[in-house]
């Protein structure tokens, strides 16, 4: 488990409890809010699974201890006042007791591009003969770059002379193949975001 910021958490500000925001590591979707005391935090660190202090049960509660829908910790960050924790986690199954991915009922579609990037990475890490990504990868960098060019041209044509549905479909193909090209070159969406942010400044 990776801890992003090493500081001493101030558990004394709110009677020994601090709020904990859980965020999906892949999609960056906010999944839930809970609370930890120092014991719950140490247990989370040691076991790599999120454990809260349940105010209703008045005891430590590991998320998924009954449902099996654990939250596996990927990173931990502390805010500037040292009294709020942000945990990026890999959720197993839905996080909310209602069966929803998130307790905040967010629109998952807006985050799917990050999930798609993770799927492409998984195809690289665990290649399958049936995988389109794997078949494209086997053809090499030149073919992958060529596909991005082809999809770019088709997107322009669709924008100028075809239906909105065609335009969305071609744009989706373009973004998908660009994600594959980024992976092939060893870059991620985060690298693009950082570059865009630097340009904005």
From TrEMBL:
Region span, Phosphoribosyl-AMP cyclohydrolase: 1-112
Catalytically driven reaction(s): 1-(5-phospho-beta-D-ribosyl)-5'-AMP + H2O = 1-(5-phospho-beta-D-ribosyl)-5-[(5-phospho-beta-D-ribosylamino)methylideneamino]imidazole-4-carboxamide; 1-(5-phospho-beta-D-ribosyl)-ATP + H2O = 1-(5-phospho-beta-D-ribosyl)-5'-AMP + diphosphate + H(+)
Keywords of the record: Amino-acid biosynthesis, ATP-binding, Cytoplasm, Histidine biosynthesis, Hydrolase, Multifunctional enzyme, Nucleotide-binding
Alphabetical list of Gene3D superfamilies matching this protein: MazG-like, Phosphoribosyl-AMP cyclohydrolase
Phosphoribosyl-AMP cyclohydrolase domain: residues covered: 32-105
Origin: domain of life: Bacteria
GO biological process, one term: L-histidine biosynthetic process
GO cellular component assignments: cytoplasm
A GO MF term: ATP binding
Record-linked InterPro entries: His_synth_HisIE (IPR023019), HisE (IPR008179), PRib-ATP_PPHydrolase-like (IPR021130), PRib_AMP_CycHydrolase_dom (IPR002496), PRib_AMP_CycHydrolase_sf (IPR038019)
E.C. numbers: 3.5.4.19, 3.6.1.31
Pathway note: Amino-acid biosynthesis; L-histidine biosynthesis; L-histidine from 5-phospho-alpha-D-ribose 1-diphosphate: step 3/9; Amino-acid biosynthesis; L-histidine biosynthesis; L-histidine from 5-phospho-alpha-D-ribose 1-diphosphate: step 2/9
Catalytic class of the enzyme: hydrolase
Cell location: Cytoplasm
Region annotation (Phosphoribosyl-ATP pyrophosphohydrolase) ranges: 113-201
Classification via PANTHER family: HISTIDINE BIOSYNTHESIS BIFUNCTIONAL PROTEIN, HISTIDINE BIOSYNTHESIS BIFUNCTIONAL PROTEIN HISIE
NCBIfam families: histidine_hisI (TIGR03188), PRK00051.1 (NF000768), PRK02759.1 (NF002747)
Family: In the C-terminal section; belongs to the PRA-PH family. In the N-terminal section; belongs to the PRA-CH family.
Name this protein carries in UniProt: Histidine biosynthesis bifunctional protein HisIE
Lineage: Bacteria, Pseudomonadati, Bacteroidota, Sphingobacteriia, Sphingobacteriales
């Amino acid at each position: 488990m990776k801890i992003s910021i090493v500081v001493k958490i101030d558990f004394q500000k709110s009677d020994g409890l601090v709020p904990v925001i859980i965020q999906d590591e892949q999609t960056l979707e906010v999944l839930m809010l809970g609370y930890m005391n120092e014991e719950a935090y140490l247990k989370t660190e040691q076991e790599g699974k999120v454990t809260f202090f349940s105010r209703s049960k008045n005891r430590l509660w590991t998320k998924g201890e009954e449902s099996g829908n654990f939250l596996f910790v990927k990173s931990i960050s502390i805010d500037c006042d040292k009294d709020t924790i942000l945990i990026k986690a890999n959720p197993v199954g839905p996080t909310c007791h209602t069966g929803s991915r998130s307790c905040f009922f967010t629109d998952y579609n807006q985050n799917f591009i990050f999930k798609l990037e993770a799927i492409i990475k998984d195809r690289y890490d665990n290649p399958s003969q049936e995988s389109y990504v794997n078949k494209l990868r086997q053809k090499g960098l030149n073919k992958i770059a060529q596909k991005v060019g082809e999809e770019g041209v088709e997107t322009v044509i669709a924008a100028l002379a075809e239906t909105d549905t065609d335009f969305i479909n071609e744009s989706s193909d373009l973004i998908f193949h660009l994600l594959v090209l980024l992976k092939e070159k060893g870059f991620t969406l985060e690298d693009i975001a950082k570059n865009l942010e630097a340009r904005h400044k």
